[in-house]
Amino acid sequence: MPVPASTVVHPAWLRVSHWINALAVLVLATSGWRIYNAAPFFDFRIPNEITLGGWLAGAVQWHFAAMWVLAINGGFYLLMNFCTGRAWRKFWPLTPRALLRDVAAALRGRLVHADPTHYNAVQRAAYLFVWADLALLVLSGLVLWKSVQFPLLRELLGGYESARRVHFFAMAALAGFVLVHLVMVALVPRTLVAMLRGR
Amino acid sequence: MFKPSFVRRASDPRAEAIVKDALREMPAPTRRLFLRRGLTLGGLTLLTGCAITDDESVQSVLTAVSRFNDRVQAAIFDPSLLAPTYPDSMITRPFPFNAFYGEDEVRQVDGAAFRLDVGGLVRHRAPWTLAQLNALPQVTQVTRHICVEGWSAIGKWGGVPFAEFLRRVGADTTARYVDFRCADGYHTSIDMPTALHAQTQLTLSYDGAVLPAKYGFPLKLRMPTKLGYKNPKHIVAIRVTNTYPGGYWEDQGYNWFGGS
Lengths: 199, 260
Known about the structure:
Chain A contains eight helices and no strands. Chain A is mainly alpha-helical and 199 residues long. Chain A has one domain: Up-down Bundle (Fumarate Reductase Cytochrome B subunit), CATH 1.20.950.20. Chain A is globular and about 50 Å long. Chain A starts with 11 loop residues before the first helix and ends with a helix. The relative contact order of chain A is 0.12. Chain B is of the alpha+beta class and 260 residues long. Chain B folds into two domains: 4-69, no CATH class; 81-252, Sulfite Oxidase, Chain A, domain 2, CATH 3.90.420.10. Helices cover 30% and strands 20% of the residues of chain B. Chain B has helices at residues 4-24, 31-46, 50-53, 56-76, 130-134, 162-168, 192-195, and strands at 117-120, 139-146, 152-161, 177-182, 187-191, 201-206, 209-210, 220-222, 235-241. In chain B, strands 2, 3, 6, 7 and 8 form a five-stranded antiparallel beta sheet that branches. Chain B has a four-stranded mixed beta sheet with strand order 1-9-4-5. Chain B is globular, with a radius of gyration of 25 Å. Chains A and B meet through helix 1, helix 2, helix 7 and helix 8 of A and helix 1, helix 2, helix 3 and helix 4 of B.
């Protein structure tokens, strides 16, 4: 069903928060890759050309500055989502049945985006996954930054070295999400417009 | 609780105007727009490293945040919280060598001629010989050394609890910093709460033997609550001070508190 042009898809606070988050994630990922390169635990390095910071100290400075942007903006995003009731309106309900149905439809190229104010089950699952993944990145990041000061968190993540891997894989999962997210936006460019101007 | 309508109304007028202005500058919403935005984002990621970081105003913001992070870490630091300790079986062998030079350039310090200078806000300024330091009560710890590069290794260090040493030299423990100068030209400094932490150790031995040159003979400071570069080797002078002393890596941009 077509939506009137005046319908607000994304309120201003959400759009601002989304773009701040995108910038924070970009800075954190690219500087994090540089930090990874200082002591890679896999048999590969990230090309320095796509990293941020110039050298380890610079990358650490960027990483530990952008973490505040991510944390404060993320806190604001969650607070607003729950205070305005958007969290329930947009993400509830999410049933396995609906998810399977929409995944099947998406794979057949038949998932409709007629109403941009409504998230289908695949979108709901994907965005909630990113909430969880970002939370895991923040928590594992806390252990890497201050492993002695957060003993419970450290032990829950299996110790310092294990937390490094958790942080890396959570980053990889986020990068994977961003990739799919951008492809979807390319397929339905209207969603980008909605995230920019709200309608 | 906020009502959605209230939030929308409160943020509307100015946001509305900004969006209108922005829209005037925008071409029709097409795939081209997306591609252009995408390229801009890609361009931003390519403007990496030196380009952005070397900009003076960017660097001053990053430095200011790093100083802010020093204060946050000092606030988070719990003096009674101990770093985990491990059984001997978990010691990393060989324990990695790390310095601002290669392993073939390790400084060889003459133990017989060695004197540890003590200065600044202390009552007893007499230098210490290695024999005098070895005569102090010793403890050992098997703890994890975490490098700012990300890697970590478990080692076994023995020596004098640093709080005990500070007590013996009559240090003013209300002072803010303890500064370390090293025989290899290295230099770092730490906060007093960390200096007094139970696991902060003036280290004289490694894995049951005299501290080898590559790990900082004759004297290093071992702190499992701080990153590797905060743990100076080949220490020749210790000074208690209220003036920010900086450090070799810290002056180049590494975080000063460097705690874990």
